[in-house]
Amino acid sequence: MLRYWLRPASLPALLCAALLLLGLYYPAASLNASVRGLTIWWEVLFPALFPFFVLSELMLGFGIVHFFGTLMDPLMRPLFRLPGISGFVVAMGYISGYPVGARLTAQLRERGQITQAEGERMVAFTTTSDPIFLIGAVSVGFFHNAALALVLAAAHYGSGLIIGLLARFHEPRAPGTPPAAAKPGSRFLLSAAVSAMHEAMQADGRKLGRLLQDAIGSALRLMTVVGGLVVFFSLVMELLTKAGTLDLLAAGLQTLLDAAGLPLQLSASFVNGLFEVTLGAKSSAETGAPLVHQAAVAAWALSWAGLSVHAQIASILSHTDLRYKPFLIARAVHGILAFALVYLLWGWLGP
Fold first, then answer.
1. Max CA separation in the chain (angstroms)
2. What is the pLDDT of residues 321-342, one digit of tens each?
3. pLDDT, tens digit, for every residue of 202-216?
4. Three-state DSSP string of the chain
5. What's the CA gap between 173 and 98, in Å, rounded?
6. Is 48 within 8 Å of 98 (Cβ atoms)?
């Protein structure tokens, strides 16, 4: 029996059992953490993400995605080895923030409009924070310094662009989606884009009422999953804090920070950011370290995105053949690049 529980495959079961026991031992803290996570979901995430989920479904049905895809095809293929339709996903992902880019990518993959390798490149490329959160919540709300938004945005989105360029080397021998054949009378790119949108609308075939109903239903199902994950990770972090596990992780991280010549007080921010992006960015602003170090940790947290967002992305990808591992590697590299870019750009863009 003991040999069975010591197997690596049994580790998730052991962790779940440990969390259950901690939840029973700290019932009040568990309830408060769950309520806090539910509040964040209802007051922040639901109004921020739900409209974009509905609009993305409507845009697919109306063929708007195909319109922009045709227009951007000459740019996206040579730069990122992606079809033009990915340009719309990149724009929506950067504007709306995680996990909208992954959601759109999964939808395109389910419809067979992109290949597996292209989908994995797109998820790696389009998972970023939205500008409203970066500027309003992090720069102004946490740091009380609007001028900090410039260097944070440059580091976060600049490193995201580098990830997109690096992702072109993912599965280099995998075939790509062939460019759409030019239609008679579609000599100009705009004419071809309008033709692609019209064909997509006809292929979908749903009337406005049915399309809106399906879009709302799909968005609500996804928001329920997102809310459950937010509540779950809020509970996990509270229980790990009560058990002293996060303090142990922070103490272990201090050795690495000391070797790198970084302030030791940043360790707690790194640990919080490992699990949840908001807590990581908030705690980085509350350390007594110099501002450049605080900004670097905040940029890392925004780019790594936290295991809570990772779980949301993994849940979305589970309905497709898109793999989580390439996304995980991209987030790790994105976090390191954003962290380094803050130091490189600080002399030019720092407040």
1. 72
2. 999 999 999 999 999 999 999 9
3. 887 888 888 899 989
4. CHHHHCCHHHHHHHHHHHHHHHHHHCHHHHHHHHHHHHHHHHHHHHHHHHHHHHHHHHHHHHCHHHHHHHHHHHHHHHHHCCCCHHHHHHHHHHHHCCCHHHHHHHHHHHCCCCCHHHHHHHHHHHCCCCHHHHHHHHHHHHCCCCCHHHHHHHHHHHHHHHHHHHHCCCCCCCCCCCCCCCCCCCCCHHHHHHHHHHHHHHHHCCCHHHHHHHHHHHHHHHHHHHHHHHHHHHHHHHHHHHCCHHHHHHHHHHHHHHHHCCCHHHHHHHHHHHHCHHHHHHHHHCCCCCHHHHHHHHHHHHHHCHHHHHHHHHHHHCCCCCCHHHHHHHHHHHHHHHHHHHHHHHHHHCC
5. 29
6. no
User: In 10 A of CB 241, how many CB atoms?
Assistant: 16
What band does 186 get if pLDDT is binned at 50, 70 and 90?
Answer: very low
Residue 226 contacts residue 312 (beta carbons within 8 Å): yes
Q: Percentage of the chain surpassing pLDDT 90?
A: 40
User: What's the whole-number mean pLDDT along residues 68-79?
Assistant: 83
Backbone angles phi, psi at 139, to 5 degrees: -65, -50
What span, in angstroms and rounded, lies between the C-alpha atoms of 284 and 301?
A: 9
172 to each of 113, 121, 133, 168, how far by Cα in Å?
A: 19, 11, 34, 7
Structure tokens, 102:
């992954």
Full-model pTM: 0.85
Give me the half-sphere count of Cα atoms (radius 13 Å) on the Cβ side of residue 344.
12
The pLDDT tens digits of the residues spanning 93-119 come to 888 888 889 999 999 999 888 999 999
- Distance, in Å, from the CA atom of 51 to the CA atom of 200, rounded to the nearest integer, reads 22
Confidence at residue 350, expressed as pLDDT on a 0 to 100 scale: 82
